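Obj.: predict assembly geometry.
Materials: sequence records (below).
Method: joint structure prediction, all chains together.
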Amino acid sequence: EAQVTQNPRYLITVTGKKLTVTCSQNMNHEYMSWYRQDPGLGLRQIYYSMNVEVTDKGDVPEGYKVSRKEKRNFPLILESPSPNQTSLYFCASSLQGANTEAFFGQGTRLTVV
Amino acid sequence: DQQVKQNSPSLSVQEGRISILNCDYTNSMFDYFLWYKKYPAEGPTFLISISSIKDKNEDGRFTVFLNKSAKHLSLHIVPSQPGDSAVYFCAASANTGNQFYFGTGTSLTVIP
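Observations (raw structure tokens):
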């Protein structure tokens, strides 16, 4: 089954404790991206990747890191999480860039206390 | 600044009637537009898209209309069904860019 898988689904952590949210897709898509969803703000893009070893900042990259060492994986790293990073995070992939539809993971609800 | 706007946070419609969801954009470089549907505790799922070379695209009960001069698009759902109750996001991208820009979403409730 074609899918984008994120882990974990729920995470509560403390300020400053490094964490990684994993994302994997099995569709051989070139493009992958991370979004955060906040009330009243919709989905905002954090980082995206056009292909292996190619990553770029989206609209809200501060406080986040990503890497794309393999085509299927695109982890999101929070080196020192802060409470303002409490949000619902989605990973997505698409066949080729932003002119084909994206497939989303089920989301990761992160709470930073 | 929000480049894609959905000015109606919520919409209620009777079952069987038409639902019309609206979306406005500011960037004239956008040439590809999509609608996504999102149920609680799930990720958004792709619904329908339209390229700027068209002004209408239809898929079953769902039709998207694009008015480039007004920088406006709308999603029509006919007839509306209770299972259509969800949050709908409008998104846009430019052929020259690599980013999707999403609106803030409209929560549709279809009343049986």
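Conclusions so far: Chain B touches chain A through 27 residues (CB under 8 Å).
To do: check interface contacts against the pulldown list.
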